[in-house]
Write a structure and sequence with these properties.
The chain is mainly α. Helices cover about 40% and strands about 0% of the residues. Bound molecules: heme C (2 copies).
C-alpha cells in the first residue's frame, strides 16, 4: 500500500467512525428509524456501511478513456434522466438547481455565467476534461469536497463512459476523443484542431445588416463593416469602452486559458501555434519576430486597437479573411472584454483604456 492509498483508507475509517458516532449520538432524535429512515439514507447509512469494507474495493474510478470511442451515445443520453431534475442539456437551456450543461466537455470548471456555485466548486481549478468528469461523476463529493451537487454518483464505469461520450456531442465543435491525441496540431499551419472548427455563422448574418451609424468610426476598410458589426450585434447593450472599464482581470486570465494551447502571454514567452502575445494591445498586427503569419493577417495590417481585438476575438476567421487562427471565437462580450483587459496588463506600459 502506498502512502496515498494509506491516507485514503485511514481517512475512510476515520470518517466511518465519525459518522457512526454521529448516528449513535443523534440518530435516535433526528432519524425516524421505524419507518425506514428515508430522509437520512443517502448520507449516514451508505457511508457507514461502505467504509469498513473499503479496503477490498478499488479506491478511485476506473479510467474511461479507452471506452469512449466505443461508447453507446444513445444509452448515454438516456442516463441523463438521472441529471435532468437539476440540469438542462440543450444549447441555451435554463439553469435549474444545477447549471446548464451544453458544451461542458472541455469547458472550465464552474464557469457558467449567472450560476451561483459553491465555493468549493468555484475555487476548483482546471477544466472538465475526460478524466475530471470521470472522477466527478463517480463520486461528486469526493472529487470536489464541499460541492453542492447532491448526486450520489455513477458507480458503473460503462454508465460514465456512455454518458460522457454523449455529453461530448453537445457542442458545436466536440472535443477530440482522448486517443485522438492532443487537440492542437503539432505544427503551426494548416491542420485545424477539431475543437476549433468555426461555429455556424448565424449571428454574423444579422450583424451584417446592422445600421451603419451603430459602427464606431469606420476606417474605410472592407473588414470594418462585417467585423465591428459582428461585435456590435452580439453586444447591443454595453459599449466596448464600458465593458473594458468594468472588466474582471481575474476572469480575463481564466479566459486566456482558452488561448494557452496556442499562445503565451508573458514577456519573452515562446511562440506556440500562434505568436507570443506580450504587449499585443495597441501593437502592430502581424509583427512578432520569428512568427510566420498568414497572408490574410499581413493584409489585415494596421494596429491592434481595442475595437479590432474585440471584433477579431468574436470571429477570428470572419474578421481576418484568410487568417490561420483556428479558434472558434468568444461569443460572450464580457469574456472578450475581460481577456482584452487581461492582455492589456501584459505589457510594460499598458495602452490607456478607450
Ligand atoms: C440534485 C441535483 C443534481 C443532480 C441530480 C445532478 N446534478 Fe450536477 N450539479 C448540481 C449542482 C447544484 C451543481 C453545482 C455544484 C456546486 O456549485 O458545487 C452541479 C454541477 C455539475 C457539473 C459542473 C458544472 C460546471 O459548470 O462546472 C457537472 C459537470 C454536473 N453537475 C454533471 C451532472 C451530471 C452528468 C448529472 C447526472 C449524471 C448530474 N450532474 C446530476 C446538481 C445536480
Ligand atoms: C488553435 C490555436 C489558437 C488559439 C486557441 C488562439 N489563437 Fe490567437 N492566433 C493563432 C494563430 C495561428 C495566429 C496567427 C494568425 C495568422 O497569422 O493569421 C494567432 C494570432 C493572434 C493574434 C494576432 C497576433 C499578432 O501578432 O498580430 C491575437 C491578438 C490572438 N491570436 C489572440 C488570441 C486570443 C486572445 C486567444 C484566446 C481567446 C487566441 N488567440 C486563441 C492561434 C490560436
Amino acid at each position: 500500500m502506498d502512502f496515498y492509498e494509506f491516507n485514503k483508507l485511514a481517512g475512510g475509517l476515520l470518517l466511518a467512525g465519525v459518522v457512526t458516532m454521529f448516528i449513535g449520538i443523534f440518530g435516535n432524535t433526528l432519524v425516524p428509524k421505524q419507518d425506514g429512515g428515508h430522509g437520512a439514507e443517502p448520507h449516514g447509512t451508505e457511508m457507514a456501511a461502505a467504509a469498513p469494507s473499503a479496503p477490498a474495493k478499488p479506491a478511485g474510478p476506473e479510467p474511461i478513456a479507452a471506452m469512449l470511442a466505443e461508447a453507446d451515445i444513445a444509452r448515454g443520453e438516456s442516463i441523463t434522466k438521472k441529471c435532468t431534475t437539476c440540469h438542462t442539456f440543450a444549447d441555451g437551456g435554463a439553469t435549474k438547481q444545477g447549471p446548464n450543461l451544453y458544451n461542458i466537455v472541455g469547458a472550465d470548471i464552474a464557469a457558467r455565467e449567472g450560476f451561483g456555485y459553491s465555493d468549493a466548486m468555484a475555487e476548483h481549478p482546471g477544466e472538465w476534461d475526460y478524466a475530471n468528469l470521470n472522477a466527478f461523476l463517480f463520486k461528486p463529493k469526493k472529487f470536489i469536497k464541499g460541492t453542492k451537487m447532491t448526486f450520489v454518483g455513477l458507480k458503473k464505469t460503462r454508465d460514465r463512459a456512455d454518458l460522457i461520450a454523449y455529453l461530448r456531442t453537445l457542442s458545436a465543435s466536440p472535443r477530440p476523443l482522448p486517443e485522438g491525441g492532443p487537440s492542437e496540431p503539432a505544427q503551426e499551419g494548416e491542420a485545424e484542431p477539431k475543437a476549433a472548427l468555426p461555429a455556424p455563422p448565424a449571428p454574423v448574418q444579422a450583424a451584417e445588416q446592422a445600421p451603419l451609424d451603430a459602427l464606431p468610426e469606420p476606417e474605410g476598410q472592407a473588414w470594418s463593416f462585417s467585423l465591428i458589426g459582428a461585435a456590435a450585434a452580439a453586444e447591443p447593450a454595453r459599449s466596448l469602452a464600458e465593458r473594458l472599464a468594468a472588466a474582471d482581470l481575474k476572469k480575463g486570465k481564466k479566459v486566456s486559458r482558452k488561448c494557452a494551447p496556442c499562445h503565451t502571454f508573458d514577456k519573452g514567452g515562446k511562440k506556440r501555434i500562434g505568436p507570443n502575445l506580450w504587449n499585443i494591445v495597441g501593437a502592430d498586427v502581424g509583427a512578432r519576430e520569428g512568427f510566420k503569419y498568414s497572408k490574410g493577417m499581413i493584409a489585415f495590417g494596421g494596429k491592434w486597437t481595442y475595437e479590432r481585438l474585440d471584433a477579431y476575438l468574436t470571429k477570428p476567421r470572419k474578421v481576418v479573411k484568410g487568417g490561420k487562427m483556428a479558434f472558434v471565437g468568444l461569443k460572450k462580450p464580457k469574456d472578450r472584454a475581460d481577456v482584452i483587459a487581461f492582455m492589456r496588463t501584459m505589457a510594460d506600459e499598458p495602452l490607456p483604456l478607450p
